[in-house]
Amino acid sequence: MNTKEVCRRLSTTPKALRIYEEQDMVVPKRDRNNYRVYSTKDLLKLREVMLLKELGFSLKEIKSLTDKNIYADNQFARSLYLQLRAIEGKINELDNIKSTLRDSIDKMLETNEKLNYDNFLNNVSVILDENKINRRHWIDRWGFNNKAVKFDKLVRDSSNDELGLFTNYDEILEEIRLRINKYKAKTILDIGCGTGNLCGVLSRSLDVVGMDQSLEMLLQAKKKYNAMKLKLGNFLDRPFSKDRFDIVVTTYAFHALNDKEKLMALRNMMEYLRVNGKIIIADFMFSNDIEKNKCKNKLLNEAKEDLWNVINNGYYTNVEKLKNCVISQGYKINCKHIVNFTWIVEIEK
After folding, report:
1. H or E segment at 337?
2. How far is residue 333's CA from residue 94's CA, in Å, rounded to a whole number?
């Protein structure tokens, strides 16, 4: 495709294309007459660059992001994913500015005293600087520490699991599969499905939907289990209709939610369930706050603050509080401690 056609299709200018080429972001091949020839891959990259530029990213920032987003396979999906995350980041930035401006207006309306406008200007400057720092961090971290490719090995490598978080990993997944089969479930939603280790094998004979907020995890699951239906999303999204699934299951993901988010997630999962359906949760938990404090004191006394930080950086569920919450909603709950920090919880609608 020549320059004129690219400009027409993407509503851009030859000057912009030359700038992207000079910055080594999109460099088309040349034909025998030295005219630029843009490939479909070049168009995809241009669309990515143009959207990021529209969102306010500098050319330097765009190059840093796009250089990290080059893959031999699934390039289109990864490009869309990068654009999606960039848009979500921009929305967060605008929300921060919006809240600051709204708070400033409210404070102006609440006082009858002479206003110090410098304070309000400084508040906006502070939030703009914070947005820049957060964006810089996001750009720097994009594509780093991708656990998806090595996830299956990671959860089975006890040498790097001093806390024993993934002890008996495969046995626990098998127990959950046995429960699913015992309940004769036909439709299953696996939230935080990762690479499909739990329900991938079940998708050969059952209707299984796997949902995860990591595109890379989903791409790995797709490679392993092509019969599994996959969806990008998380606990707090609501992409499914009511009464759709016999079982909603999640493994080693629930601890990423704080208490408020857990309640929201449970409400969502309950809505997805059919009558007599079940939620099955396998995750890191403490039976109560007393047990959590004992664990904390033990690790700190052993000079293992780093391990306590691993635990404290998550939101391990308090089983007693969870039971009380579920029972108060009129549902049945059964909790079983498996090993170390791992529990299996069943909630029946």
Report:
1. strand 332-339
2. 41
| Number of domains the chain is built from | 3
pLDDT of residue 319: 98
Instruction: Check if the beta carbon of residue 304 is closer than 8 Å to that of residue 296.
Output: no
pTM: predicted TM-score of the whole model, two decimal places: 0.81
- Retrieve residue 46's tokens: 């241009």
Clarify whether residues 234 and 158 are in a common domain.
Answer: yes
Averaged pLDDT in 10-residue chunks for the chain of 349 residues: 95 95 94 94 93 92 85 81 92 93 88 79 90 87 70 88 95 97 96 96 97 93 95 94 96 96 96 96 98 97 96 96 95 97 97
**Does residue 39 share a domain with residue 7?**
yes
Would residue 25 count as lying in a domain? yes
Question: What is the residue range of 19's domain?
Answer: 3-54
- 114 shares a domain with 244: no
Cα–Cα distance list, 130 to 96, 137, 147 (Å): 9, 11, 28
> What is the sign of the dihedral through the CA atoms of 252, 86, 260 and 349?
negative
Nearest to 192 by CA among 264, 248, 247: 248
